[in-house]
Structures are given as C-alpha cells and as structure tokens.
Amino acid sequence: MSASKIIPSRTALFLLDYQVINAHGKSSCAAVMSHAASIIKTARSKGITIAHCRVAFTESEMNAIPETNPTFYKAKTNPEAAPHFLVNSPSSAFYPDVVPQEGDIVVRKNRVGPFLNAPQDVNEIFRSRGIDTLILGGVSTGGAVAATVVQASDLDYKLFVLEDACADADIETHEFLMKNFAKRGRVIRSEDLEGLVE
C-alpha cells in the first residue's frame, strides 16, 4: 500500500466529537462541523466508510469518573455541566449537519481518546471491516484529535489528519499540533482528498 494513497475499502473517515455541546459559543468548531458535511459527501462518493464518535456518559459511567481524570471530573462535579454529557442529553447529540446515516459506524466514548476504556472496542470494529487507514477530523484539536492521533498511530493505523476538519478554541494549539501530527501521519486539507484516493 502506497504511503501517500488512500484505498477506500480499507479507509474510514473518523469524525470525533462533532456534537451540539461543542458548537455552543465556539464559532470555529461550529464552522468546521458544518464544513464537514461536504467532506462526508466526498468520502461517501469514493466508497470510504464514515465513522462517527461522540463523548457521552451513562449515569453510572459519570458517577465512576475518578478525581485523577481532571478533564471529565471537572464536568462531573459541575451540576450545570454534567447533564449535558449524559447519553440522552440533546447537548451530547451529533451536530445536525453531520448526523450519521444508515450504514455508518457510530461509536461512543467516555474518555478523550476513543481507543482506551471505551464502551465499544473501536479498534476491533475497524479491524473487522479490514480498515487500516483513518482520515481524522474533530474537535478539539488539542483533545480528541490529539488523543486519537497518538492512540491510532500506536495501533499502526495509516493516518491522514484533515486540517480544515479540526478546530480548537486556541488557534496556536491547533497550529502547533498540526505541525506535530505530521510526525505520525499526513496532514491534508479537504480539497486534497479526491486526489489521494486510488
């Protein structure tokens, strides 16, 4: 397999945390999620699998978050924030522009990255379909995307990161990480996608 080419039958467009909660008050994130709709359309037309991942907790999972996990412990202990992260909350739902369609892979996670301590074995789901290449988009760049790049790289996936399908509240963090991600995969823009598909 060429390191620079995408084989559709072995590839998933993996979209991370494109959720209603991540659009509120974050114009860059909302814009990226809306833009992702056209990326999904292109990927579908090429026969690439679409995979959606959201962060959401059952009540028992929320109650079990330890103090040693500052990211989600902070949400757990904030009575205004915690309900928004529950599985059935409208806030944790997928953003309207990128709602999964029939046949898409849909997974849930309860940590920043999708491969560790998740309710579903995401790696097994991908491998069972012969997927060894991931095209990543998500919010935030410094959270879900960074965690997924590291975890997926360690699991030996071939990686492409869509720069214009990722966003972070801190633009400097976004720009720094995009340079860093190039050490673990290839950073591309959505307009590059068609030319990379074999």
From TrEMBL:
Keywords: Hydrolase
Gene3D superfamilies (UniProt xref): Isochorismatase-like
Coiled-coil residues: none
InterPro entries associated with the record: Isochorismatase-like_dom, Isochorismatase-like_hydrls, Isochorismatase-like_sf
Pfam families: Isochorismatase (PF00857)
Family, as annotated: Belongs to the isochorismatase family.
Name under which the protein is recorded: Isochorismatase-like protein
Species of the source: Paraphoma chrysanthemicola
